[in-house]
Amino acid sequence: MKKLHLYVIKTYAGPLVSTFFVVLFVLLMQFLWKYIDDLIGKGLEFSVIAELLLYTSVGLVPLALPLAILLSSLMTFGSLGENFELTAIKSSGISLQKIMSPLIILTVLMSIGAFYFANNVLPFANLKMRSLLYDVQQQRPEMQIREGIFYNGIDNFSIKVAEKNHRTSMMYDLKIYNHTHGRGNRKVTIADSGLMRITEDKGHLVTSLYSGYNYEEMEERSRQLNERTFPHRLDRFDEQTLIIELSGFDLQRTDVEAFRHNSQMMNLTQLEIITDSLKQVLTKQVKEHTKTLIESTFFKQDYLHSRLQDSINPAERKPVDAWELDQRLTARQREQALDQAVTMARWTRNQIISTKTNFDWQNRRIRRYEIEWQRKFTLSFACFIFFFIGAPLGAIIRKGGLGMPVVVSVVFFVLYYVIDISAMKFVRELVLPSFPGMWISSFILLPLGIFLTYKASADSPIMNTETYYNLYKRISRTVKRLTRQNMLKSRIP
Predict the structure, then answer these.
(1) Would you kindly state where each structural domain of the chain is located, as residue ranges?
(2) Residue range 301-337, pLDDT digits in tens
(3) Tens digits of per-residue pLDDT, 77-96?
(4) Exposure winner among 66, 140, 256, 409, fewest CB in 10 A?
(5) CA separation for the pair 277, 272 (Å, rounded)
């Protein structure tokens, strides 16, 4: 039995390691494709890029590990079934559960390791990756200028570009506002096209402008409006070089503490502390708002009630209800009371709407931390679920290699994460509580894993096309027989 278990573990370990790194590589390429504009052309050192990719790879492990477990378990048992090794083992009296037992123990250990990784390693990697990515994005200001948007990343200058040619780096319809003297938009440069480059020492931004003009408002001595002449200067040019001094655009590492308040950069203890603090603040605000509404709005003693009580003889004063108070009011006082009530009701409604918006924002903020707290556990549990889907499904399909297993694995992986992302959105929008919402995908796929394990243990041919074809033939024969019987009954007088 020990040799069998070692053989199964060796058969499983190879595909697990290889598929893990393949999936990690694919996800890393997706990251590079997303942020390629922030990385290329900035003169970054190889060590900086390697460090960014390292931290990014660590952050992608929660996506890569469950898929690798699903794919490798499906490939392992599919290969054993395809080579009839699984049949030979079962014929010797060993059940599928005993064959899977060493891999179950290994999966449990990987699930525990995944939880430790998500709680201790992943927050640190996300913190380092986010801070480094932010620093990289601040490099090369000419690369940060977007079409149709004012760029204010350079001190004392505001730059707008209508169009950019990413192949030639040529910019068209440039507007450069010079705020060096702090007197507003008094000095403007407009050019038909231009090129920007940073000097080798990264101290200056050299801008070559073509076919444009400089506009500058001059100082005027007279402050009398009727005596002002609004002097200005307009210089046209065919080509002009504008040199802008840069400061702080070399790669400077930002303090990581500035990003530590993000939910993805915290462990369980930190998430619990900040969640409890935010809930206490929200509860206190709700109580204060409720108290204010009750004392200042719902049971507020208005001035009409005070005036009516003052007009009554003190010896005859007694508590009156709303109906009796209304009967004592004059027509003018009743009209004033209704106007005041409508005004107070509208003010209260606006106050409640505004406060509700604030409370919803605070609840969404709390939900972000609760979601991250739950994800520490769903990651490890997903590894467990995907194994119990992949292993029995591979025993049923009996196909190894990278053909059918890859297709089936991708289908289940996409299904899991579509449900997970949809449920996460519902949790963020306060539609579902955080606990059931973040566990919906696991609760849906867990019964599927149990069902597949049961079917694989019973050697059920649920993935055999001939089984479904025979079922279709039986149903067709039954339908034809019932149709003939109904026709015969209709012919009998």
Answers:
(1) 141-245, 463-493
(2) 554 455 445 544 444 545 555 566 666 667 777 777 7
(3) 888 877 877 778 777 778 77
(4) 256
(5) 9
pTM of the model: 0.67
And the tokens for 148? Answer: 């149709």
